[in-house]
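Human:
Class, as today's exercise, you are to examine the entry below, and be ready to discuss the fold:
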Amino acid sequence: MSNHCILCGKCMEVCPLLRATNREELSPRAKAELCRVLAENPGELSEVEAARLAGLCLGCGRCAEVCSQGVDVPALVAGLRGAHPDFKAWLWKTWLTRAKQLWPAGSAAAKLIPHAFHTEKLGPMLKMLAGMSGGPGLDPFVEIEKYPDTWRGERMLLFAGCTANFVQGRWLMAALKLLDGLGVDVISGDFACCGSGLKCAGFEEESREMAEKNVAVWREAGRPKIVTFCTSCLAGLKGYAGCFEDEAECTFWLESMFPLSIGLHDVRFMITDNLPKTLGYHHPCHAGKADPDRALLTTMLGDRLVAATDRQCCGFGGVMRLAAPGATDPVNRECWAALDGAEVLLTGCSACLAQLSATAPEGVMVGHWLEIMR
């Protein structure tokens, strides 16, 4: 795949890691070229050097979106990570595959660690862990007065995602309340994790097992629409390949994806008196150009949204958060610079929310857009 790179530089214009650090060796183009060299001369880099290179990619996918040659640098890096696993990769894999057991316990434990132990390196990670299960949440200020009849009576599966299932139950309850208002018949489905975090980290086999299970759940339910409210989960589900009976079923799967915000576009709503003075919105990298969450909030809030990101990445980076946390800091700072002035920040991605909650300036609240609905 890296052999197709023509070094045009389109990826250089959109890479948040390159823009924030100004280090060309971290650019997608450099990674594509290095992967080509490694493919042709496997001994060119040592095991340690290859593993270090594998850690330096946010996996945001912006470069793949603009590449005219179809080069997918995050996929190349994932392959490199899979070929050169290390302890941090194993730790990341364990964290994701045992989320039900580890996330609630890890979040509760992090809250008990005194602030004096929050070192420069560990502090942000501990704050992220503590915030996974959330605090009091946002104070709702959108009251839905009337739901459309568009989806009334339609059977749908709900893919809540690991964060809502294991540590942010209020998101799940809010989504179920909204679906009830829309008149949707929610079908029970025993979904696995979407697998995107494992795939990006190089654990292709484990990710594929999750994909195959989720597709099987969808088939057994009669191939209905699948409701999502996490941008990263939605991107992960859309990224399944090789799990379908034929091309027609693959197309049907993609057409079955149903972001919850799309179902709410025609609701009649009222903004209550406790509306925050200034609001911001973070556009997740994996939302792509079409972001239904942003469209919904723009309709509801209009010019009350005083700040929003577009090109900026939150700097979470999946396994890179463990492999090279310092390299993500400039990316995160650039993101918050674009959101300056917002006292409440909304987003629709659980990973972005974890990162932004852990790095938010003093006095800034961060929450999922579901939290603003009464």
About this structure: The mean pLDDT is 89.
